[in-house]
Amino acid sequence: MYSFELKRADSVASAAALLGETGGKPLAGGQSLVAAMKLRLAQPGTLVDLSGIAELRGIRKEGDHVVIGAMTRHAEVAASKDVRAAIPALAALAEGIGDRQIRNMGTIGGALANNDPAADYPAAVLGLGASVNTNKRKIAADDFFRGMYETALADGEIITSVSFPVPKKAAYAKFAQPASRFALVGVFVAQTGGGVRVAVTGAASAVFRCKPLEEALAKNFTADAATMVKVSPDGLNRDLHGSPEYRAHLVSVMAARAVVAAG
Amino acid sequence: MGANDTGLIGQAVRRREDLRFLTGAGQYTDDVNPPHHTHAYFLRSPHAHAKIRKVDTAKAKAAPGVVAVFTGADLEGVNGLPCGWLITGTDGKPMNEPPHPVLAQGKVRHVGDPVALVVAESPHEAKDAAELIDVDYEVLPAVVNCVAALKPGAPQIHEQAPGNKCYTWALGDKAAVDAAFAKAAHVAKVDIVNNRLIPNAIEPRAAVASYSRADDSYTLYVASQNPHVERLLMTAFVLGLPETKVRVIAPDVGGGFGSKIYLYAEETAMVWASKRVNRPIKWAAERGEAFVSDAHGRDHVTHAELACDGDGRFLAMRVVTTANMGAYLSTFASCIPTILYATLLAGQYTTPAIWCEVTASFTNTVPVDAYRGAGRPEATYVVERLVHQAGVDLGIAQDEIRRRNFIRTFPYATPVALTYDTGNYDATLDGAKAAADVAGYAARKAESGKRGKLRGIGYSSYIEACGLAPSNVAGALGARAGLFEAGEVRVNPTGGVTVFTGSHSHGQGHETTFAQVVAAKLGIDIETVEVVHGDTGRVPFGMGTYGSRSLAVGGTAIVKALDKVIAKGKKIAAHLLEAAEADIEFRDGKFTVAGTDRSKAFGEVALAAYVPHNYPLDKLEPGLDETAFYDPTNFTYPAGTHICEVEIDPDTGVVEVARFTACDDFGNIINPMIVEGQVHGGLAQGIGQALLENCVYDAESGQLLSGSYMDYAMPRADDLPSFQVETRVTPCTHNPLGAKGCGEAGAIGAPAALMNAVHDALLGVGVKHLDMPASPHRVWQAIRAARG
Fold first, then answer.
1. Can you tell me the distance from the alpha carbon of B588 to that of B574, in angstroms, rounded to the nearest whole number?
2. From the list B128, B652, B692, which residue is nearest A175 (CB)?
3. What is the three-class DSSP state of B150?
């Protein structure tokens, strides 16, 4: 790790000011950023720690939405009675992120801002058609994820919360990469007020919606309908753990399993 | 153990070392902090193969906190790292043995090859300074595959190894094998890759090297499995120092699995540099460094054939293997795919003729050496995959084809140079079958089928040669060192016993098992026995721990020293009891005049030896401290049968290990709990190789693609079933403990059992061949290809 300066913010406004002054990076749960720093792959001169900002934490029900503060830890989402009652698929997804230590430190805002191609949360946000609230604006999920580690966030913009509409039914099925246990392919399916949404993580450079599966499941929300869809391998990842063809196949298989889990 | 057995032998005594490990009181190398010490960082090659045009260290030397920077140029005149085993090729010539410089000299040959040593006041300053070293590389084409390296036109790695060949070596009677194949009713064939593994001990390698100007001596703390061998190789072969001036201490060590046997560049450079900077130097590898600098394991490519008669009786075996040595010859690299491999190809079977040819090649990869099992897992994999294939080809059940070929008469001389002293292979096969509930398998398979899953069962009846080794036999085969073990038993004046052993415990529980042996033999409380290991300054000598040799060889050395203690004790007791020495019996911790109730307790005799007021000083020296060196007369031959059941999800290719049963014969067992723990760990590593672990280099660039836990899949608890572990006993005939060794069996037997189960499960789908690891992607691809 290279040396760096740590600044602690006690409000979103002071965090934004500190980021503006220093050109530093916000530190949420640190489960990706600190690991990268330890490997000397990231060298931020200044980190602005968001963990002391009370307004960024907590989970609340707002009408037919569940709103989760950006600094809410994965373990808190997994254990939340509100989340478990309203969107059990989201609680289950949070419970399956990384390991216990990561779930106790990692945050939903950090995970979304990082937008790792194999992260779990982006699939839920995109699959449920959630919106990402920042200190400047509200960004629809469909506009938020731009590409590998890329989002719509501007420099210094801070995620404050995520607002999830409660779906009719939803589920997430993850096929874990054997070494990292990140998603080799993770599929989030949801029947929402705006129709069936299917979001896929791990398979490509960033999370994406799978239109052929959405169309098939809109007609017939069954595992068989998902299995019948042949997903194109074009543009999917190739690495030690899977070819594009394997990932494409797994998208259908995991979608079918998610449909079963959604009940 | 005989007459003096107090009942401690065979008991699951809790591990005495665990209190300090579990409460954080262990003292590992990285816990050693000599006053005023500095920190080392090694700059490593980012390229698989490159010429070094120039190294500029000026900026690094001027960086904050830097004490010194050394490169290969500073070490000119210092010898390279040695290889401890000379293999003579089929052409009668010695193997090609290119230099292995401590720091790169003019060329780097694998990613991770150390180029410079930076010594600084803190680890971070050392690392920061290393980034300022300017190395001008001329990148060369690389080759990483052991077969590709031998092809014409492959990049040439060493001047001293034309065509990248280290040796071609063979064992067995080729003419007899050819003749048997010519008349065989059937020939089973397999082409297999034994995947390269990265060892991953939980404690990465570490060293602390100090120099004393007072007496021109060095002290090296190092995470090592064999400190005496480390000292011998470093002083005699590399640095040219007297052994009297170097003390090597291997304190608590967190796992080795072979990877800490060897003399490495890092600690050698640090000992050398400690005199130049005249301050202690400390280094602890980062996990990423461990991936590119700890010796790797396995990496064979093999074609093997088994000739059978019409009834499935084995007539002959033919094996042709290419083995990857990596970029340099590591300490014992050359003997692993030869002496410890081809000699095991008889397995548990009466195959009358066997011929094996091995070609070893250099590649632009981390050196390969012994890793848990070392040659024997590779041999077992060849034999047991072939036997499985023969059973499938001939329609003979897997247990039956093994049984038809088992060796049942001992001693048995194999056609590949070993003589098995004892064994009962039917007993371990029967035991495994019963424990695995093979009778219920058909119902389980049907139930899996109802859920759309493919179930398979696989057998592996393995044998290993352990208790390394008769030194004269090893010497005749090319070993450049002895393979005996030393033990000292120091009886203290008040009766407590300190045992100094040349074996080294880095997870094996010697402090408990050896204490059980001593307490039982002397009839004393185990709490009065202290076991000391891992320090050339305290232990008389030692060859260390590897090859499942500690109890069979190291334990026997202790027993021999105990025999001397008891013999001397009898003389002292005879004097104290005014009886003839021949009339003194030693039993239950007492020296007794036979046929009387007159006796002296062991403690009384010990006290007399150190307070010799009433003592035969004219005939006997005072004191009670005896040393023995034990050189075994044969290897030991642990053997057993493993049975694995897998369930495969054809939709995803995921292989689940549904059941795993091991029935092993390790000879006599001192502590069954420790033995079971060793089996569990071995099985986890064997299953890891077959299911998950795979070291992958990019074929073009030579970069390590599986360079972290993000891509190198270690087995985890939830990858494994609850193991069924049983033992059967035929005592080893040639050591007094009757012990054979247990540390490697799991890793030796498991891969073939698992892969045979996978092949059995996929037989109906039409999959003919799959290499390890049976990863989901590979299994899915194989199923898809077979279904067309």
1. 17
2. B652
3. helix
Q: Which of A182, A74, A67, A80 is nearest to A128 (CA)?
A: A67
Place of tokens 């004269």: B472
The answer to whether the CB of A26 falls within 8 A of the CB of A151 is no
Q: What is the C-alpha to C-alpha distance for residues B194 and B319, in angstroms, rounded to an integer?
A: 14
B4 pLDDT above the threshold of 80: no
User: A54-165 is classed in which CATH architecture?
Assistant: 2-Layer Sandwich (3.30)
Sort out which chain B residues have CB atoms less than 8 A from A175's CB and list them.
652, 776
Q: Name residue, tokens 């010194």.
A: B68
Q: Sort out which chain A residues have CB atoms less than 8 A from B714's CB and list them.
A: 179
Residue with tokens 């230590």, as numbered in its chain: A101
CB-count burial class (<10 Å; 0-12, 13-18, 19+) for A235:
exposed
Residues of B in Cβ contact (< 8 Å) with A100: none
Task: Measure the CA–CA gap between B783 and B788, rounded to whole angstroms.
Answer: 8
If one counts every other C-beta atom within 10 angstroms of the C-beta of residue A216, the result is 22
B678 to B458, B666, B682, B742: CA distances (angstroms): 22, 11, 6, 7
Query: Which residues does chain A have within 8 Å of residue B653's beta carbon, measured at their own beta carbons?
Result: 246
The domain A169-262 is placed in CATH, from the list 3.40.50.2020, 3.40.50.720, 3.30.390.50, 3.90.70.10, at: 3.30.390.50
Q: Are B742 and B664 in contact (CB under 8 A)?
A: yes
Looking at the DSSP bridge assignments, the partners of residue B535 are B249
- Mean pLDDT over B518-528 rounds to 96
**By percentage, how much of chain A surpasses pLDDT 70?**
100
Q: Which two tokens stand for residue A240?
A: 């030690």
Contacts of A240 in chain B (CB under 8 A): 694, 696, 705-706, 711
The model's pLDDT over B148-185, given as tens digits with 9 standing for 90+, comes to 999 999 999 999 999 999 999 999 999 999 999 999 99
Higher pLDDT, B419 or B469: B419
Task: Establish whether the linkage from the previous residue to B34 is cis, with ω within 30° of 0.
Answer: no
Residue position matching structure tokens 């009834």: B311
Q: Give the H/E segment covering residue A199.
A: strand A195-201
Grouping H, G, I as helix, E, B as strand and the rest as coil, residue B727 is strand
Q: Report all structural domains of chain B as residue ranges with CATH numbers, in order of start.
A: 2-25+484-630 (3.30.365.10), 32-140+202-255+260-293 (3.90.1170.50), 300-469+634-787 (3.30.365.10)
**CB B710 to CB A180 under 8 A?**
yes
**Taking a C-beta distance cutoff of 8 angstroms, is the pair B171, B416 a contact?**
yes
Min Cα–Cα distance to chain A from B297, Å: 19
User: How far apart are the C-alpha atoms of B713 and B299, rounded to whole Å?
Assistant: 17
Chain region(s) in chain A for CATH 3.30.390.50: 169-262
∠ CA B251-B488-B236 to the nearest 5 degrees? 60
CB-closest option in B124, B709, B781 to A179:
B709
Distance of residue A179 Cα from the nearest chain B Cα, in angstroms: 4
Cα separation, B230 vs B243, in Å, equals 11
Q: Which amino acid is at B217?
A: S
Under an 8 A CB cutoff, do B713 and A178 touch? yes
Q: Which residues of A touch B (CB under 8 A)?
A: 1-3, 39-40, 175, 178-180, 182, 239-243, 246, 249-250, 253
| Residue B2 scores a pLDDT above 80 | no
Q: Where in chain A is the domain with CATH 3.30.465.10?
A: 54-165
Question: For an interface test with B, which of A181, A240, A241, A249 has the most B Cβ atoms less than 10 Å from its Cβ?
Answer: A240
Q: For A5-49, give the CATH class.
A: alpha beta
* CATH 3.30.43.10-classified regions of chain A: 5-49
| DSSP string of B724-743, one letter each residue | EEEE-----SSSTT-B---S
Chain B nearest C-alpha distance from A242 (Å): 6
First to last CA, chain B: 62
